[in-house]
Amino acid sequence: AIQGYSVTVQDQDPERLAQTIKRAQYSFKKKFKRDRRAIRDANDHLMADHRGSGIARADIVIEAIFEDAQVKRSLYESIEPKMKDTAILATNTSSIKLEDLSSCLKNPGRLVGLHFFNPVALMPLVEIIRGNETDENVVQQALAFGKNIGKLPLAVKSSPGFLVNRILMPYILEAVTMVDEGIPPEVVDKAATDYGMPMGPIELADTVGLDICKSVANILSEALGLPLPNNLKELSDKKLGKKTGQGFYKYKDGKAIKNKGASYANTQEVQDRLVMRLLNEATACLREGIVDEKDLIDAGVIFGTGFAPFRGGPLEYIRSSDIDELSRTIDQLQAKFGDQFKKDEGWSQIA
What we know:
alpha/beta, Rossmann fold, 4 domains, two-stranded parallel sheet
């Protein structure tokens, strides 16, 4: 709506729909400040649409429901007959392969991934996911749409977690595993921010929502064989992170309450465990050709996660470091902690 597109928003819950419109109106005011005309124009382009009548007129339909392939397929079956023949169906899934969603469609070539990152207003990247059956024209239109709404679109191959979440989730899971082991979350987070990350992985998990993290982790655990930490296996509805006021941290006025005196004897090992999980998964994405060019892996991780920009991205960090020393470190971690640190064959492709 800010970019001049006419947008209708549908939700089965009228209250949730009203809250969505209210948040959008707040973001318009925040962006345009005293420019009343711009605020009015944006509001005029946004319409609550509880019955979904806008689907029949839409050039692009964006689905953004929760991460359940069966529920998504059921939705597609109900809306595809209402869509124009030329309309694109875009899913905001953060981890489900498009091939697991497209089987119910009469025209699977219209399905493309359009994965935004939170907070959407601040994070510039949008992943454009190309499925095996996605029409190339649809991919190009999605890339153009991403540019037109002021984002940095990155074309990625359909695979579990795509690029950013594929690399980010093992890093978060390792962080939660360390908390399982009794390492204070403050120590884990400080190890990450000392490396240059904008936020520690434990606070990031709280911010995203532990229920969402669990959903993505379950999908990747099944697809990639990643062990799920105990702290994510059973969640309390009252302790889902920042949105409920408590997760790994308690929150007051939106800020995490941290124990400033938290300590641990081997903080370098904590940092190594975090960084090596992230680097190793980046090399796996390189080997699997998740993006067309290796430099795009670094760009995607920097713009999608805030990965320490001064380090140049995970692959550039490996290239500019002593690779032999990094290899020894990950081998030592594998010997001590297990095969989640088994060095991927993609390391041999870094030059």
